[in-house]
Specification:
The protein is of the alpha/beta class. The chain contains twelve helices and 14 strands. The protein has helices at residues 20-30, 45-54, 66-75, 93-101, 116-127, 143-153, 182-187, 190-193, 198-214, 307-310, 323-344, 356-374, and strands at residues 7-13, 34-40, 82-86, 105-108, 133-135, 160-168, 218-226, 237-244, 249-255, 266-271, 274-279, 285-290, 295-299, 380-381. The strands form two sheets. Strands 13-12-11-10-6-9-8-7-14 form a nine-stranded mixed β-sheet. It has a five-stranded parallel β-sheet with strand order 2-1-3-4-5, with helices on both faces. The longest helix is centred in the last third of the chain and has 22 residues, at 323-344. The mean pLDDT is 96.
Length: 383
């Protein structure tokens, strides 16, 4: 058996004062596929270099800007092969472009960018390159989300009629952006978040999950975006009706002002022969009902789970798995793609991680929601 060397990667953002960088690093190392070798961890040089030291990154590979990092790493014989970008939304497009031009594969947090124009330019750049691009819609990495997708593809619930997805949180039910917390400040700032607030931050997760599980494109939407907290500049509650390409209908609700809700992502998909239901609160169970009203609970890696989803499980059945493991699935699939290109420069088939097309669709969704809401819920096409 040939042992593959870990993929050398660097990180832009994700310093020790943030949260999401640690999740990415844990997911990247969980299966031993990646090794952190470089970083521009913060726009604050002190935080950047302190983070590098704490994470075991050599001082000469700790950079004060992503531009210097891309240039220097491209010139090294042992330079990074991939970069992970975990910055506020307005700092996605620039680093993506710089590292793409330097020949690195890209792993980028969502949403793709802060503007649709930037997203379209980045989509063109990635499409014209031979580099792998993975967008971290992490919830698609859960084994039972994959199980639902595969059962729908196999026709087990028939023709899709209804897709309901919701994602309520409550952390922004008060004026938290005025508390001095960095993660709250930039999410409420149009200059850094873009024109979408809740719709960009978690609405894109819900939208992508609806598309990923159903396998259907959304053709048009009718949206109502609301800012309930006084003086808040961006939306904090999103209600959307969706029309799918097959004639099916959908409802999407995401909110960050729903008191007592922590991370209540869930979906229900109804076909003409049955239904499937999953909740992030209990991610190791998928509920399936057929046209005879018979109900079945499919457990992660359990006897009813298909091999296609069971292979994604790290732990035996009955042991809970969650957020980091779902992230790690996307990192593992990305590693598989990068290694295939190491050997043959051909992109492997059959991998399901979100990519640049999903990022562009998410940005179209954000802007369609903003336009529709401004027109009092007028039906608006995504393309």
């Amino acid at each position: 058996m040939k042992l593959e060397l870990p993929i050398r990667y660097g990180m832009v953002g994700g310093g020790l004062t943030g949260k999401i960088g640690a999740i990415h690093r844990a997911a990247a190392r969980l299966h031993g596929h990646f090794r952190l070798d470089a970083g521009a961890f913060s726009s604050d040089p002190g935080i950047a270099h302190a983070s590098a030291s704490a994470l075991g990154v050599a001082s000469e590979r700790s950079y004060e800007s992503y531009q210097k990092m891309a240039e220097s790493e491209a010139a090294r014989e042992d330079g990074i092969e991939a970069v992970v970008i975990v910055t506020p939304n307005h700092l996605h497009a620039g680093p993506c472009k710089a590292f793409l031009e330097a020949g690195m594969h890209i792993i980028c947090d969502k949403p793709l960018t802060s503007t649709l124009a930037d997203a379209e330019r980045l989509h063109d750049a990635v499409s014209q390159s031979d580099r792998i691009f993975m967008l971290t819609h992490c919830y698609t990495g859960y084994p039972l989300v994959r199980e639902a997708r595969h059962r729908i593809q196999a026709g087990e619930i028939g023709r899709i009629r209804l897709v309901h997805v919701e994602y309520p949180q409550g952390w922004a039910a008060g004026p938290i952006e005025r508390s001095g917390l960095k993660f709250a400040e930039w999410r409420a700032d149009p200059e850094r978040s873009g024109m979408g607030g809740c719709v960009a931050d978690i609405g894109t997760h819900a939208f992508h999950l609806a598309r990923f599980v159903s396998g259907l494109q959304v053709e048009e939407i009718s949206a109502q975006l609301t800012s309930f907290v006084e003086h808040r500049m961006l939306d904090d509650d999103v209600q959307v009706l969706m029309r799918f390409e097959n004639g099916g209908r959908g409802i999407l609700w995401t909110s960050q002002v729903a008191w007592a809700q922590e991370n209540g992502l869930s979906f229900r998909v109804f076909g003409d022969r049955g239904s499937l239901e999953w909740s992030h609160v209990d991610p190791n169970r998928l509920c399936h009902a057929n046209e005879k009203q018979e109900h079945c609970v499919i457990t992660r890696a359990g006897p009813a789970a298909s091999p296609r989803s069971a292979r994604l499980s790290l732990s035996p059945a009955g042991h809970p798995e969650g957020y980091v493991e779902a992230f790690a699935t996307l990192y593992t699939e990305t590693a598989t793609a990068i290694r295939a290109m190491r050997n043959s420069r051909k992109r492997p088939k059959g991998l399901e991680f979100p990519g640049i097309d999903d990022g562009l669709e998410g940005m179209k969704f954000i802007h369609a929601c903003i336009d529709s809401s401004a027109a009092n819920g007028q039906w608006t096409r995504l393309n």
